[in-house]
């Protein structure tokens, strides 16, 4: 599945969730970030994105919160998640045991 097909598929699956709460791990140039923000803007949602690199210039959307940190700094990030999550999008470090560790924490 290429990037566009994958993202269109995700968008379709989540676009009707009211007040959607999304956690995104790994921002880079913000391709997925922008797509998630479109969904948040449609239904009063909120997106928290985390990256070890400073990606804060990707967007100035008021529904966006960027956390400049490693996504396994659970003590820091868990405190910033105020509502229960509808979507956890993991695209940071792709090593299996790492993905499992972060998924278990945020799920
Ligand atoms: C594949 S890119 C993300 C691409 C993005 N999802 C998109 O749609 O454009 C991976 C990103 O994960 C970040 N990253 C790698 N390890 C990380 C970690 N432990 N915590 C947070 N971010 C990490 C990298 O800095 C990089 O920006």
Secondary-structure class: alpha/beta
- Which CATH class applies here? Alpha Beta
Count of DSSP H/I helices: 4
How does the major sheet shape up?
A: 4 strands, parallel
Small ligands present: S-adenosylmethionine
**Radius of gyration from the alpha-carbon trace, in angstroms:** 13 Å
Secondary structure tally: strands? 4
Strand arrangement, largest sheet?
3-2-1-4
CATH topology description: Rossmann fold
Span between termini: 25 Å
- Supply the number of structural domains: 1
Please bin the fraction of helical residues: 25-40%
Shape: globular
CATH architecture verdict: 3-Layer(aba) Sandwich
Topology as a string of helices (H) and strands (E): HEHEEHEH
What key phrases describe this protein's structure?
Rossmann fold; single chain; binds S-adenosylmethionine; alpha/beta; 107 residues; globular; four-stranded parallel β-sheet; 39% helix; 19% strand
Describe this structure in words.
The protein is globular, with a radius of gyration of 13 Å. A four-stranded parallel beta sheet has the order 3-2-1-4, sandwiched between helices. Helices cover 39% and strands 19% of the residues. α2 links the parallel β1 (21-25) and β2. The mean pLDDT is 95. It has a single domain, classed as Vaccinia Virus protein VP39 (Rossmann fold, 3-Layer(aba) Sandwich), CATH 3.40.50.150. It is an alpha/beta fold and 107 residues long. Bound molecules: S-adenosylmethionine. S-adenosylmethionine is lined by residues 25-29, 31-32, 50-53, 70-71, 91-93.
Outline of this structure?
This protein has helices at residues 3-14, 31-42, 74-80, 96-106; strands at residues 21-25, 46-51, 64-68, 87-90. The protein is an alpha/beta fold and 107 residues long.
């Amino acid at each position: 599945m290429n990037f566009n097909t994958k993202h269109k598929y995700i968008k379709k699956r989540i676009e009707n969730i009211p007040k959607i709460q999304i956690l995104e791990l790994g921002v880079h140039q913000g391709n997925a970030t922008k797509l998630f923000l479109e969904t948040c803007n449609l239904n009063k949602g909120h997106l928290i994105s985390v990256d070890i690199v400073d990606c804060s210039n990707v967007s100035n959307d008021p529904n966006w919160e960027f956390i400049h940190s490693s996504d396994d700094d659970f003590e820091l990030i868990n405190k910033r998640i105020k509502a229960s999550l509808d979507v956890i999008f993991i695209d940071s470090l792709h090593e299996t045991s790492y993905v499992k560790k972060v998924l278990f924490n945020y799920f």
